[in-house]
Design goal:
6-stranded mixed beta sheet, ABC transporter transmembrane region fold, 64% helix
Amino acid sequence: MDSTPKNTGAERWLFAEAKKVRGLLFAVVALSAVIGVLVVAQARLLATACQRVVIQGEGVESVTSLALTLVLVAVGRSMFSWILEHRSSAAAARVKQAVRSRLYRKIQALGPAGLGGSDTASLIETVTKGVDELEPYFTRFLPHAVLAALLPLMFLVIIVPSEWRAGLVLLFSAPCIPFFMILIGRGSEKLHRRQWSRLSRMAGHLLDLVQGLPDLIIFGAAKREAAVIARVSEEYRSATMSVLRLAFLSAFALEFFATVGTAVVAVIVGFRLLSGNLSLGEGLFVLLMAPEFYLPLRNLGLSYHARMQGVAAAERIAPLLATPDPEGFSGILLPSPGPPAVRFEGVSFRYGGVRGGVSGADLELPAGSCTALVGESGAGKSTLARLLIGLARPERGRILINGHDLTLLAPDAWRSCLAWVPQAPYFTSGTVRENLLLGRPDASEYEISDALEAAAATQFVSRLPHGLDTILGEQGAGLSGGELRRLALARAYLCKATLVVLDEPTAGLDPENERLVGEALARLSMGRTVLVISHREQTLIHVDRIAEMVDGRIDRVVSPFEFLKPSEAAA
């Protein structure tokens, strides 16, 4: 029951996109009309030539001019068909480029908070395969729908004066094709929607497996999950074959009615020829035009499958594009120089308005202090950090920077004061130097060396085959986790940020790397306001104060000595 509104909205969105390339689509329809005229001319020339040679007994020389004209018409038909395909592809390419660009901008505008309810695999599937499946809708279905409404009527007007009985057969048999097309298309639409959902779930499942592959290998579960993938793939193959089976059934129904109609026209023409009431030229012309009369309707029926693909893709694309952009920064104030003083006042935010997030959080980060945020998983630590760096905006409450509301600050100026070091720092495929300079391309060699020294990274960088010019693989492949964390700290140190936010900088590291990263963190904190999310005691001993979160609220703010056991603090 809920499919009709979705379908209507998706189709309306597709028509709106088609209006943006109406010029190219009008050219496609005009070229198709020209091709239709050439089809009529081709049939008339061929019928006339046969009339002269067979009935009138004229020689081949008398139809030479007709044969040459027929060749020119055939060449023109081929040329216009090629241009038509080119224009259709150009229209579809323009729509795809525009939609994909808008999707990218929308995803960037929404940010992680706005996409809290969408998984990565589903978004990738929408931006890639979803956009690609719009192409057949614009290249095949829309032009064929217009031609199916125009060309059969034009052909019927031309056929009726030659043989009105055959015209009646064509007139009353033509509606059977779209009727059965719609009838079969209803089942096809349900299968397409179900297939799209199954593909999105499979993509999410595969992405989760790829991300967790190391853990699966460690726990010996890789073969078991491979069997699951094989089963899911087989189910998807079976579902795909069901869709194809229905598509072939649709094609068979269309061909059946077109063949029966043409056969009935042939019988009528034959009897009329035997009775002498119809000339061979007129009869052959009508017989040649009968398949051409059904061709636009058959093409529309065959392209109805493309419509189902386009509508199914639009049902995922249109709602995403219609999602309102979150309210972001709109201010013009410039941040004060030096480490900022930060204050959270009654800050609340929940993903999707239901789960996770923070609720009425109050926290103060004094200027130049290093504060650790601790708490159980799901307590809201990462959400609080994302609110601070501007990836989301509080639903209630406010965040003050040196006494000014964060939303009043100029976005670019505020981001230039920030350094964000996530739990899994991002590294591109390139040299160590290029990755260090991502935040500050104009840094000098001395500044790079100073940042590496502060992050305890000088020693291992000097041991690399080409030093700073050593090429790293995707996601920093070639370096250990501890080395990557220290490079991320060096990058944060290099960009001269006055506010640094770190998420679990020592998680998963061995004791030696944990010690080195902890010492680098202590050096990074000098002259900066630092917020670090961590559970590791080796990290907590380097901070000034510890804020504990419970169920989205700040439960208490204590010193490391009060939070840790006396023996651990002493250590």
